[in-house]
Design brief:
Elements: H1 3-21, E1 30-34, H2 40-48, E2 53-56, H3 59-72, E3 79-82, H4 91-97, E4 100-104, H5 107-116, E5 124-129, H6 146-154, E6 159-165, H7 174-194, E7 200-202, H8 209-215, E8 219-222, H9 224-227
Parallel strand pairs: 1-2, 1-8, 2-3, 3-4, 4-5, 5-6, 6-7
Helix pairs in contact: 1-8, 4-5, 7-8
Bound molecules: pyridoxal-5'-phosphate.
């Protein structure tokens, strides 16, 4: 087994143990392998360990990976998640290549993704990015604005509203992590009452996975612990 495959097995086992510890349903928490800056060979390696969902942050890099897999391995069933910031001039590329978008934080982005989603593709599965830290500098919408954006998304035929996502402030103590995640869980629960398609809570990374799973996460986004440290030397 390769290092990457060992890492995936280790993290998958941890997720299963945490589901049991917090009385979550077995298999309810999905592992999203964040492959940004990492080469295609590593994604192929992870695929051999049954990893099927991959997250990318940069439009150009992500799109070129999707195109490569469609051309060389059309038989592989990969779910591609876009988890980076989206500029308006890049929405078309995202709409034409990805299955999921975690980072919708403006009505303009939602509208453009809807209008640019090709008719022969399934609706784009989307999450609203929420700012749980109440810091102006953080991306994501404030809690009060979530419902207005949800209203718009639910009216767009080529988008399916699946839930919310957050990248909370980087804190090390468990109680603070849990508090931020529970706030997001409540928003998701309120949204799910109103919109039956809402079932997803994207939260938890390598350093705060346990608190996220305790609070109800359904997608944990893990990069470094699977693929190793990133080298940003070639990035914009
Ligand atoms: C890079 C990234 C991750 C993965 O972070 P690691 O610390 O490498 O696990 C998760 N979520 C988002 C939004 C990211 O940009």
């Amino acid at each position: 087994m390769t290092h990457i495959q060992q890492n995936i097995h280790r993290i998958t086992t941890q997720i299963t143990q945490l589901e049991q510890k917090f009385a979550r349903q077995q298999g309810e928490v999905q592992l999203l392998a964040v492959s940004k800056t990492k080469p295609i060979e590593m994604i192929l390696d992870a695929y051999q360990a049954d990893q099927r969902s991959f997250g990318e942050n940069y439009v150009q890099e992500g799109v070129s990976k999707v195109v490569w897999f469609n051309a060389h391995h059309p038989e592989m069933t990969i779910d591609w998640h876009f988890i980076g910031p989206i500029q308006s001039n890049k929405t078309r590329q995202v709409a034409e290549h990805f299955d999921w978008v975690h980072t919708i934080d403006r009505s303009k982005t939602a509208q453009r993704l809807n209008d640019q989603r090709p008719a022969d593709m399934a609706p784009l599965q989307v999450l609203i990015q929420v700012n749980t830290s109440d810091e102006e500098s953080k991306s994501g919408v404030m809690k009060e604005e979530v419902f207005e954006l949800a209203q718009l998304i639910s009216s767009l035929p080529n988008l399916t509203l699946r839930g919310v996502m957050s990248i909370p402030a980087n804190v090390n103590d468990y109680a603070s992590q849990l508090q931020a995640f529970q706030a997001l869980q409540q928003i998701k629960a309120q949204l799910a009452d109103k919109y039956p398609s809402v079932d997803t809570l994207s939260m938890g990374m390598s350093g705060d996975m346990e608190a996220a799973i305790e609070a109800g996460s359904t997608i944990v986004r893990i990069g470094t612990a699977i693929f190793g440290a990133r080298d940003y030397a070639n990035k914009q």
